[in-house]
Write a structure and sequence with these properties.
With 391 residues, the protein is of the alpha/beta class. It is built from 10 helices and 19 strands. Strand 9 (168-169) and strand 10 (172-173) form a beta hairpin.
Length: 391
C-alpha cells in the first residue's frame, strides 16, 4: 500500500504531517509523490488566507476529478468548500506521558510540535475555529521525543506550535522548555518559531543568549505598527512592546536575525497607519519579513468590519514593504562575508542549508552529508543568499 502526502501552510501543519507519515511507514505503508501511484492521498490544508484556501480546494477538486476512486483524506485547517463537504480534522495534542510512536526521519531538520490551538481572539484570524483553545504537550514527553530525534541523527530541531507564547505544562513555560531542549545535546541546534511580544518572549531572549546551540533568530508576528490598528485586530501588545522586544534581542544577542509578519490593508488602515508600519520596518533591523495583504476570512470579525481597503491598495502597500524588506535582508546577508557560521545541510548536491540566523548558504563543490552540522566561512553573498567554504 502506498500513501501520498500533500501539505500546505505552516510549520505546525508540516510537523503533524511528518508525524502522521512516520506512523504510516511504521504500519508498513510506502511513500510516493505520485497521485496516480497512491492508494491513499492525504491533503493537510490551510485557510489562513483566501489564496491558501483556494490552492488547497483546487488541488482537492483536481484529485477528485482525475482520480474519483482514490481514497482521499483531508485534514488540517481547511474551511468547508462551497461546492463539496470537506472533513476538517487535525492531529490531537498528546496530553501526557511519553510517546511510543516512531519519529519522522525523512527531512533534514526535525519538526517538533509542542503546543496547539490559541486562546487569543484576533479579529482577522480563522485558526482558533479549527484548532480550538491553547493546549500544550507534556514537558517530559517533548524532551523524550527530542532525544529520539537526536538519537536518529538530527542536528536541528524546529519547535512548532500555533501560539508558542502560550506553552505551559506542569508550571513550566516556553523559556524553561527551550533551556531544557538546548541542554540535551550541544551538537543539536534548537530553532524557535514565531513569538509575540510578552514576558514569555523577553525571558526566552535571555535563554537564547545563554545557549550557544539555540539558533540566533527570532520571529515576531508584528502585523502593524499602528496602535489603533493593533487594537482593531485585538493583538495583545503595543508598538512600544514590539520595539522593546527588538531592542532586547539586539542588546542580548548581537548579530541575530529578526523576522516579522506585516499585514497591509486591514479595514480602516489609513495612509498614516501604513506609514507607521513602513517607518517601523525602515528603522528596525528586520532581516526576514513576511508581508501579506489583508484577506477576509469568513467567520472572523474583521471580515465584516467597515472601512474595507480596495484590493489594489492592499497589494500596492504590500509591494512597497516587500521592496524595503528585500533590501534589508540583502544588507543583512552581506554582513556575514568573512565571518564564520554553521549550517545544517539540507541539499547534499550543493552542500546548502540554513545558518543559525536564517540565511541560506551554499558551499559549491564541497562534500557535506545531508543533516550534518557544518562550520562554514562565508566568502560571498548574492542577494540574500550566502556562499562559503567548510572549515
Amino acid at each position: 500500500m502506498k500513501v501520498c502526502f500533500e501539505t500546505f501552510g505552516c510549520r505546525l501543519n508540516r510537523a503533524e504531517a511528518l508525524d502522521q507519515e512516520a506512523e504510516y511507514l511504521a504500519d508498513g505503508w510506502k511513500l510516493t509523490s505520485s497521485h496516480s501511484d497512491a492508494d491513499l492521498i492525504i491533503v493537510r490544508g490551510c485557510s489562513v488566507t483566501r489564496r491558501a484556501q483556494r490552492d488547497c480546494e483546487h488541488l482537492i477538486a483536481h484529485i477528485r476529478k482525475k482520480y474519483p476512486n482514490k481514497r482521499l483524506l483531508v485534514e488540517g485547517c481547511l474551511a468547508t468548500s462551497r461546492t463539496e463537504k470537506i472533513a476538517v480534522r487535525h492531529a490531537p495534542v498528546q496530553a501526557s506521558g511519553k510517546s511510543s510512536l516512531p519519529v519522522p526521519t525523512r527531512t533534514a531538520r526535525a519538526y517538533l510540535k509542542v503546543q496547539d490551538g490559541c486562546s487569543g481572539k484576533c479579529t482577522f484570524c480563522i485558526v482558533p475555529k479549527f484548532r480550538g483553545k491553547s493546549s500544550s504537550i507534556d514537558f517530559d514527553a517533548i524532551l523524550d521525543k527530542a532525544k529520539r530525534f537526536i538519537d536518529v541523527g538530527y542536528h536541528e530541531i524546529v519547535i512548532t506550535g500555533c501560539n508558542l507564547s502560550l506553552y505551559a505544562s506542569g508550571g513550566k513555560r516556553l523559556p524553561e522548555l527551550m533551556d531544557a531542549l538546548a541542554g540535551l545535546s550541544p551538537e543539536c541546534r534548537i530553532r524557535l518559531g514565531s513569538l509575540e511580544p510578552s514576558e514569555v518572549a523577553a525571558d526566552t531572549v535571555a535563554v537564547i543568549a545563554s545557549r550557544q546551540n539555540i539558533c540566533r533568530f527570532m520571529h515576531i508576528p508584528v502585523q502593524s505598527a499602528s496602535n489603533r490598528i493593533l487594537v482593531a485586530m485585538k493583538r495583545p501588545y503595543t508598538v512600544k512592546e514590539v520595539e522593546d522586544l527588538v531592542h532586547a534581542i539586539r542588546r542580548q544577542i548581537p548579530g541575530a536575525g529578526i523576522g516579522c509578519d506585516l499585514m497591509t490593508g486591514f479595514p480602516s488602515e489609513s495612509d498614516l497607519d501604513f506609514m507607521a508600519t513602513k517607518g517601523l520596518l525602515e528603522r528596525e533591523p528586520f532581516s526576514r519579513v513576511h508581508v501579506f495583504p489583508f484577506s477576509e476570512r469568513p467567520g472572523t470579525a474583521a471580515a465584516s468590519m467597515l472601512g474595507a481597503i480596495p484590493s489594489e491598495i492592499r497589494k500596492a502597500r504590500a509591494k512597497e514593504l516587500s521592496k524595503i524588506a528585500d533590501e534589508k535582508r540583502t544588507a543583512f546577508a552581506r554582513r556575514f562575508i568573512g565571518k564564520t557560521t554553521e549550517i545544517v545541510v539540507e541539499d547534499e548536491d550543493t552542500a546548502s542549508g540554513w545558518t543559525s540566523e536564517y540565511l541560506w548558504c551554499s558551499c559549491p563543490h564541497a562534500k557535506l552529508p545531508r543533516k550534518s552540522l557544518a562550520k562554514v566561512r562565508i566568502t560571498g553573498a548574492s542577494g540574500h543568499k550566502l556562499t562559503g567554504t567548510p572549515i
